[in-house]
Design goal:
It is a single chain. The chain is built from six helices and three strands, in the order αβαβααβαα. The chain is mainly α. The chain has two domains: 88 residues, 3-Layer(aba) Sandwich (Rossmann fold); 36 residues, no CATH class. A three-stranded parallel beta sheet has the order 1-2-3, sandwiched between helices. 14% of the residues are buried.
Length: 167
Amino acid sequence: MPSPVSQASASRRAPCNRPGRIINISSVGGRVATPFAAPYNASKFAIEGLSDSLRRELLPFGIDVIVIGPGAVATPIWSKVEQVDITPYLNTPYARPLERLRAYMLALGEKGLPPERIGEVVLQALTAARPKVRYAVTQQPLQDWPARHLPKRAVDRMVGKRLGLLP
């Protein structure tokens, strides 16, 4: 006769007796905030926090939560940046930074990863014996390194200088 402990453990397992995995797609923008992209960054930061919390909540059930954080992916979304009307900002300190950011985003889209690369990483995360908690998938492996390791004020100055936001 099974013990109450083994019955309780068995009731928490997935029906196939293998732990489950949830994959959440975030972004480099889930770790690095970009000026003028606050709503996008907020949604991706939220996915990161949700995933960490959910992964810990699901520990008793053997369900893992894994984040895939891609950089730029070559999809039609990048062309939408040309449709954004920046004319209300033409006579403001934001005109030049917005133009620079637009050019940067268009270049990112042109050099982005093929969508299939993200699919390969999702498959890896689903089939790895010991998956990572987070997979960064970028053309530039150190893309988010400054934001993760340098003081926030230093990163603010770097971004501000690059976009022309500093006085």
